[in-house]
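Thread: sanity check for a docking pose with flavin-adenine dinucleotide

Original post by kr_44:
Hi all, I'm comparing my docking run against an independent structure prediction. Below are the sequence and the ligand SMILES. Could someone generate the full complex and paste the structure tokens? I mainly care about where the ligand ends up relative to the chain.
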Amino acid sequence: MFAADFDYYAAESITEVMQLLERNPGASLLAGGHSLIPLLKLRLSRPPAVIDIGRIGALRGFRRQGPEIRIGCLTTHADLAGSPTMQDFCPLLSEVTGLIGDPQVRNRGTIGGSVAHAEPAADLPTALTALGASFRATGPRGQRSIGVGDFFLGVFETALETNEILTDVIVPMKQEGQGMAYAKFPHPASRFAVIGAAAVVNVQDGRCQSASVALGGLVTRPIRASRVEQALADSPLNEAAIAEAASLAIEDLGDEDLLGDVFASAEYRRAVAPSYVREALTRAAQQAR
Ligand SMILES: Cc1cc2nc3c(=O)[nH]c(=O)nc-3n(C[C@H](O)[C@H](O)[C@H](O)COP(=O)(O)OP(=O)(O)OC[C@H]3O[C@@H](n4cnc5c(N)ncnc54)[C@H](O)[C@@H]3O)c2cc1C
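Reply from moderator J.T.:
Ran it for you. Here is the predicted complex with flavin-adenine dinucleotide included:
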């Protein structure tokens, strides 16, 4: 399959990206290309122009800023998975990115591309939801910050405007007494998450002070499992308490239509989701001890 014709530009700076977006309405940004290029080749996307942002070195890498970590949008999954520093700063991101696809995908795919693409079966949106991340975007009117709860709107749909570039993903540093883990049912062909559950727990004196739990692969966007979280607030984090709280994930899914396909029906996903929540919580609790 060949893509329809498009104009190609390689931008050297964010300012140049802004100028190119203004001159080329409807243009697509190209990061790692692992989602965009298949869409172009299948002609599911036919932008008049493609703006390659891959040469903008300032957008790659991460650094600590006080209590937060600022991750440039071009940081690859492999950069995050293989970094001992990230393992200290935020082990959930190391774990999740290490489970994405295969080495080729991890070497090319970027955090910015993954979240801007907003595939419901992607892993990072679920982890970033549990972490309470925020996103920094630059557009014609300057920069703005978008909280994770307002960012993912639906299948391939985010709060980003078509003339904005996502520049950074910001997550909190891991705290003392905190544990975090991700449990995933990978599709055997693509490795995308049939179900993904991310958990962050804050533990003091053996009791869970608060928990943040997110689920992916089930509806059109990542969702917080608020009933699970409420059940764990000020609760012991033993096997029984975790199992009881995880069972409430079914209620968190509510009446919303779940995704389903020939590999895993909606009913199946609903039935097994609590066991992934339980696994993520169990490992997060072990880490916090
Ligand atoms: C075989 C295969 C297996 C995979 N398995 C998994 C998996 O197990 N789990 C998982 O989570 N993902 C998986 N992926 C997806 C992978 O994680 C890609 O990294 C991700 O989908 C897109 O990242 P990218 O950098 O390649 O973005 P691109 O393909 O370059 O871009 C994707 C979209 O995001 C937009 N975009 C990119 N960067 C920006 C930006 N900075 N600002 C605004 N818009 C931007 C583009 O315009 C495009 O619309 C898989 C992909 C493949 C091909």
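The chain has three domains: 7-52, 59-172, 178-288. Hope that helps with the comparison, let us know if your pose agrees.
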